[in-house]
C-alpha cells in the first residue's frame, strides 16, 4: 500500500497499519488481519463508506484499532469525512470499551486519534 502523501486519511492509515498487528495480538482474539487490512485499504483511498462497513463487524467483535477508527468516523464524521456514520448507543458503548483497553506496550494509546477514549 503506497501512502506517501500527507493527507489526514493517509496519516491515519499509516498509524493504524503500523500499530494494528501489535494491537491485534495484544487486545483481541479476533483473527481478522485480512479484514482489517481491507478496511484500511478502503480508508486510505477515501472510500469512507466501504471502510466503515468493513470496520463495524471488527469493532463489534472487539478489535481495538477497528473500534478506534470506527469511533473516530462516528464522532468526527461530518467534519473529517463530509458525512455521518450512524451507530447505535450500544455499539458506541462496546466500541468505547474495546478502544479503551490499554496496551502496556503503547502508553500513549488513549488519545491517538484526537478522540478521548478513556474515562
General description of the model:
The chain is globular. The protein is mainly alpha-helical and 119 residues long. Helix 2 (33-44) packs antiparallel against helix 3 and helix 4 crosses helix 5 (89-100). It starts with 7 loop residues before the first helix and ends in a 19-residue tail after the last helix. It has five helices and no strands. It has one domain.
Keywords:
single chain, 119 residues, mainly alpha, 5 helices
User: How many individual helices?
Assistant: 5
Beta percentage is under 5%
Number of strands: 0
- What's the number of structural domains? 1
Distance between the termini: 35 Å
| SSE pattern, N- to C-terminal | HHHHH
Share of residues in helices: 55-70%
Give average pLDDT, whole number: 77
Structural class: mainly alpha
* Poorly predicted tracts of residues: none
Radius of gyration, in Å, reads 13 Å
Largest sheet: none
Amino acid at each position: 500500500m503506497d501512502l506517501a502523501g500527507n493527507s489526514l486519511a493517509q496519516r491515519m492509515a499509516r498509524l493504524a497499519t503500523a500499530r494494528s498487528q501489535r494491537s491485534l495480538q495484544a487486545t483481541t482474539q479476533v483473527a481478522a488481519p485480512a479484514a482489517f487490512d481491507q478496511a484500511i485499504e478502503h480508508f486510505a483511498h477515501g472510500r469512507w463508506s466501504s471502510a466503515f462497513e468493513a470496520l463495524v463487524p471488527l469493532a463489534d467483535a472487539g478489535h481495538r484499532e477497528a473500534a478506534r477508527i470506527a469511533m473516530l468516523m462516528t464522532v468526527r464524521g461530518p467534519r473529517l469525512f463530509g458525512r455521518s456514520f450512524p451507530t447505535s448507543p450500544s455499539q458506541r458503548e462496546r466500541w468505547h470499551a474495546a478502544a479503551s483497553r490499554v496496551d502496556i506496550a503503547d502508553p500513549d494509546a488513549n488519545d491517538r486519534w484526537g478522540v478521548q477514549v478513556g474515562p
